[in-house]
Specification:
Number of strands of chain C: 22
Chains: A mainly alpha (277), B mainly alpha (292), C alpha/beta (583)
Mean pLDDT of chain C: 84
Largest sheet of chain B: 2 strands, antiparallel
Strand order of the largest sheet of chain B: 1-2
Strand order of the largest sheet of chain C: 6-7-8-3-9-10
CATH topology of the largest domain in chain C: Rossmann fold
Low-confidence stretches of chain B: 1-7, 207-221, 230-261, 275-292
Oligomer: heterotrimer
Helix content of chain C: 25-40%
Radius of gyration of chain B: 19 Å
Radius of gyration of chain C: 25 Å
Amino acid sequence: MDAVKRALDRISVEQIKLELLGTAYNSSSTFLGKLDPRTLLVWYLFFAIVPWFVYNRTILLGMFILMVITTVLSRVSPYILFILCFGLISQIGWLFLLSLFFGGGIESLLPMLTLTLKLSVISLASITVFSSLDPERLSDGLSSLGVPDMFAFSLSYGYRILPTLLEEFHQILLSFRLRGQRPLKHGWLYCRTAVYYLRIVVLVFYPLMLNTAKRSRTTIEALETRGFSYALNNPKVKKLKLSYLLMKWSDWLFLSGSCLYITLLFWLGYLHPNLLY
Amino acid sequence: MSTLKMRYTLTQSQKMMIFVLSMSLYGLSNMFTELIPSIQLGPVELSVEYFAFIPLTLCMLFHPLYAAVGAAVGEIIFGELMLGQFGGLGELEKFITFSLAMYTAGRMVSDPKNRRQVGVAAMIGVAIHQFLSSVVDIVKVWVGVEELEAVKGLAESIVVIEGVGFLNDVLFSGILFALLPTLYLVPRLYGKIEPLLGMKPRERNMKYASGTWLSPKLVIGGILLAAVALGAELVSESGWSIGEFELPWAESNEESMIWLSMLVAAVVAAVVIISLLRRAKRKGQQAGQLDA
Amino acid sequence: MREPVLELKGVTFTYPGADQPVLHNVSMRLVEGDFTAVIGSNGSGKSTLCKCFNGLIPHYYSGDFSGEAVICGLSSEGRSVAELSRHIGYVYQDFENQLVRPTVMDDVCFTPLNYGFADYKERGERALALTGLSELRNEFIWQLSGGQKHLLALAGALAMEPEILVIDEPVAQLDPQHARHIYEILRRLNVEYGKTIVVIEHHAEFIADYCRNVILMDNGSIRWQKPVREAMSSVDELLALGIYPPDVTQAAWMLQPGLRLGRLYPLNVGEGKACFIHRDKEVVPSVLFTNEVHLVEKEKEIVVQMKDVRLSYRTIHRTMNPVLNGIGLTLRRGESVALIGNNGAGKSSLMKLIAGMVRPTEGTVNVKGIKVNGLPPERLSGIVAYIFQNPEEMFIEDSVRKEIAYYLKARRLTDTEERVEQMLHAFRLSELAEQDARLLSGGQQRRVSLAIGAAIRPAVMLLDEPTANLDISTKQEMVKVLETLRGQVETVVIATHDMQLVAEWASRIIVMHQGRIIADGSKDEIFADGQLLQRAGLAQTPLMELSQMLGLPHICSSLEEFTQNVALQKEGPVHSGCCQTGA
């Protein structure tokens, strides 16, 4: 349970600010990052849905290879990849072990490997795309595809307000700690200490709720004076805002390249459905 | 003026305040719960699943729809997108099940000062959410594996894993991070947080007639919609696109089909869960009385 | 006669659910190019008045509204807030909450984009140039300082190129240099661009220097609307309402109260110089005594000791940003230490080090013989109390009594009840004990935060800007409250910009600049060195400046002291040209 303490130490304002916001807006230097957000989203939609209904292992493997290439291209942080792999392996691993217990055999491993392959393709697709889109471009892309403007606004507002919220959370947490009393003994497996911290973290939300309520009131009032509701009812504004989105030749190249690859893949898949196993 | 006092009505901006409040707070908490490590006991994960008390509290104090949707959006933005863990379409299922569950819990409370009512609603809210997400997980494997029945033991094991996970989340996260904090917060915040947003507190004893709860029309509509919530992944099968999904921010769209039916689904899902957890309910007849 | 741009006719407004109207039959008009200050005590309806201008009242706040508001020829009736806001820019007192986008450029373009202006980017650029923020266009909002955020809020309003700008308490949260900077910008907007400007303001010094007209609000109605010199010269009327005119004006009034009707007082130091003369009779300055006390204290027990302390933060570019560079400092029992310096000089960081809230990169910090480097805050809490700048961040309970008792209860001390009562009494909070601290006024909140700190009975109490955001009368009260602390706490350290507070309260002054201590001494030593203050980015108070200009034997910090040392010049040149410069 020492991990809890370390985790709480990690909730240092500066740390999170730097880690999250620094990287969030830093993605447009990669090849995928330079593509139009709509291209990426459409591309993603395909790879998020189709694999579910493909049971041909050759096709899935081909898709997986493509995903690995795009993942490398988008320079995803190794940490995220590690988390992904770990999650997939442990999930499937436990499933397999339990199925052995229920009378399954080694042969149940194969369908599960297929499932893993599917899940990997889908997860890698989402990681590639969403780590290549900075929040602004993502929200613009989504709103051009018809997601409500309120979501797009919330997304960028989230990035605006997060540091403020963290700061305030941190201060209130400090207030609790400066006036509180940590358990003198850590207890069994640091249980007491963990309970103490978790209790504070929950309690912090009481003042935080009240303070945030005050804040939201001004924010919404200010939004009114800044013409936000006017824009929501005005399609012209949306058009103006999204006018910078442009399908460049690289977008078409990327899309047609992917199409060609998939077509070839399906053709190959039907010829040799059991290339892998 | 007098008509204003009669009903619990909100202006457009007040709804947005609730939305923003719920989004930022739950989003922030989600970030922490993502960072707090979990203990793995075999296939079962002992973890702080989420701080459900935040949306639960807000749903009980304010208009449940906006608080619930706000929290779900907050989770996607802070807990997924910002941490680089956004799962794309998979998040949609979370979004629907979570807001549905929170909304139902919020609707169940008519008197925020009544601790028993608040407690029961909090637990049911968590239970609905966990149940729905377990079902979705099972459906995922079912869709993902070509012939589920052909693989011996797989079906059983997935049900066991999900079942244990469900119980763990309801009992561990549910009691520690939904029930207790909600019981602590709701009565304290009631009547205090509303003026800060410039609105009147929800009327105490604002009642939903029990007839409304169980009318057959609602049940049928609810089942239909429960299907929507359960199978977000399946829905994608039919060429479902984000473009068709419009959140009804405009007042006029409030009765638009999807939300109306979601409301119904919430009620029905609640009823289903209640019957499933009859044992929990038998402890007292409170719930029955409270819902009346 | 210039065109009226804004007119209220018999406006009465009641908030929903309230019994009393907040505005009562208010009529006023502003002409194009006006620079008007709205003054009045807390709760007199200043903000409410300004919210009538852009239609927030009655469209956003649905209450009982009667009368008419006409903005740029448009009646507010039947027009939405959004429509009226094209003509009026509004900067809130808590301006941080009106910034809604992650980066500077996004935020400044937000309003024109919402209104569908195709040239929204150019508008944003222009507004940034006007406020001097062009360099920062790609920064994140959270990287900006408080002053820059305020400028950005202003730029966001300017991007719409509105005819009228309303700014609610523009300088409340800024240090004196930044405050002056923002007023300089407002003046330019007013003079060069012909904008009509309305400010809600407590600081009479700024009103006297920059505004042309003053509206005095009292209990929901407008008492009068006068040119600034006349307004500020109504000293007794203003003081009765708890509004403090500039020190120079007050000094002249104290020397010759009840001037014949129509005679006016000086408004600023420049004018004061011509009005006052040094009275020959020497008055023994009281400051000397405190100096001796200061000497005696040198022998006392050491409470805080810092040795060669350095502190750096990591920046977004993954480089280290040094905040403190080699601090050596000893604080002793009984000292009242003022830590002064401009924003970013390292004052707060220094205090956080003492409180154990941050760990020094190098060096050691000792408090009461305990090495605090990186100790958990719970360990130190009985020894050091840290009072945040924003009292709301200290409120964790739902009543004043529980706030004060929290520390004592957490430690299960036996005399909890007693001590809480004692604190409530000492800080005059007995009446408010059962209320929620968040709902109290600014001054009351500060008192609660001090009581929370004092209940701990710490050896050292650290206060971050205890007078920020307070109006002048509350500020005066704070000085008295700080005196209360002397009996409870061994050593008090205050980080502040408020020279008035320093002058009236401190026994020892430490001047910080760029992470170093550049001076450390008594009041007279520090204040006599004008260059030093300038180097540290601080401004002298008008009285100090005047004392120097008039060649008084020592620097006067209080009005009483000053008026004992000076006299008004015979036939004060108030009539003559020199006093009209401000107009």
